[in-house]
Amino acid sequence: MFKRFWWVFPVMAMVGPVLGFAFAFLLTQMIPKQYESQTVIEMKPRVMFGIAEASHAVPPPPPAESMENHKALIKSPEVLALTAENLKLAERWSLGRNDTLAVLTKIVDVDRIRGTDLWSIQVLHTDKAAARDIANGVASAYRQHRDETQAKQAESILRAINKEVRSQEDIVEDLRKSLMAAAAKLPDKGKSAGKAFTSPDFTAAKSEFVAAQDVLQELKLKQMGETISRKIPGESVEMHAPALISAIPVSPNVTLNLVLGTAAGFFLSPLLALPVMWLLGRFMPAKR
C-alpha cells in the first residue's frame, strides 16, 4: 500500500497546512473576542509644611514599600463595589451584587509600572466600551474612596484633639483657681530684700499651673495644625492616561492561531495521509 500510494504523503503535506489554517480560522471565529483597556494613575503623596507639619497632627507619608498595598486597595471589594455602583453594572449585566463583584475581580488587573510611581489598571472584556468604562471607573472609584477615607480620618483626629483641648482647658482653669486661692493666703507684708513673700503651697500651685498651660499651648498648636492640614489636599490619585476604546482584540490572537494551525497541519500531514491511503486501498484494490 505504501508503494502504491506513496504520492499521498507529499499531497497531504500541501493539503494538511490548508486544513490546519481553515480549522484555526473557524475556531478563532467561534471564540468570543476580548478587548483590553488601560488607564494609568499616579499616587501623589501629601505635601505638608509649616504649622501643619510641626504639629505632627497628620502621620508622615508611608514608606516606599507600602506602595505595594495600592494593588490590593485598588482591587478591594470597597473600590470594586463603588465602581459597580457608579457605573450601575449590576443593572447592565442583570447580576446580583456578589456576582458583579466576582466578575470585576476576574477582569480587573493592576500592575505597577517599573521604576515609577505610576500604576496601570487593565480591564479585559468582550464589550470594548465596557472595558474602557470600567478601567476609568475603577480609577475614579479608587480616588473617591481614598478622599472619603482621608476625610473621615482627619475628622476623627480633629475630634480627638478638640476633646483633649477641652479637657486640658478644664484642668488649667482648676489649677488657676487653686493658684488664686494659694495667692490669697500669702501674708501681706510688702516686699523684703526685693522679693515677694511666697509659700510652698503657692510655689507648687504656680508650677502645676505653668506646666498645665504649656500642655494646653502644645495641644492648641496641634489643633491649629490639624485644622490647617485639612485645607491641604491629601494624598491624591491623578489620572495620567484615561482608558480608550481598543479597536483590536487581545484575545484570541488571530495571527498566532493561524500560524499554529498551519504548522500543526503540516506536521500532522503524515498521520492524515494514513487513513487516506487506507481508504484508497479499500476502494482501489490492487490488480492481480
Can I get a quick summary?
With 288 residues, this protein is of the alpha+beta class.
Query: How many structural domains in the coordinates?
Result: 2
Q: Report the order of strands and helices.
A: HEHHHHHEEHEEHEHH
Mean pLDDT: 81
What is the fold-level CATH name, i.e. the topology of the largest domain? Bacterial polysaccharide co-polymerase-like
- How does the major sheet shape up? 4 strands, antiparallel
Beta-strand percentage range: 5-15%
CATH C-level name of the largest domain: Alpha Beta
For the terminal residues, how far apart are their CA atoms? Answer: 14 Å
Strand order of the largest sheet: 2-3-1-6
Description:
With 288 residues, the protein is α+β, with helices and mostly antiparallel strands. The chain contains ten helices and six strands, in the order H-E-H-H-H-H-H-E-E-H-E-E-H-E-H-H. Helix 4 crosses helix 7 and helix 7 packs antiparallel against helix 8.
List keywords for this structure.
Bacterial polysaccharide co-polymerase-like, 6 strands, 4-stranded antiparallel β-sheet, 61% helix, 10 helices, 11% strand, 288 residues, alpha+beta, two-stranded antiparallel ribbon
Lay out the secondary structure.
Layout: H1 8-30, E1 35-44, H2 50-54, H3 69-74, H4 77-87, H5 89-93, H6 97-107, E2 108-112, E3 118-125, H7 128-184, E4 191-192, E5 195-196, H8 200-229, E6 236-241, H9 254-267, H10 269-283
Antiparallel strand pairs: 1-3, 1-6, 2-3, 4-5
Helix pairs in contact: 1-9, 1-10, 4-6, 4-7, 7-8
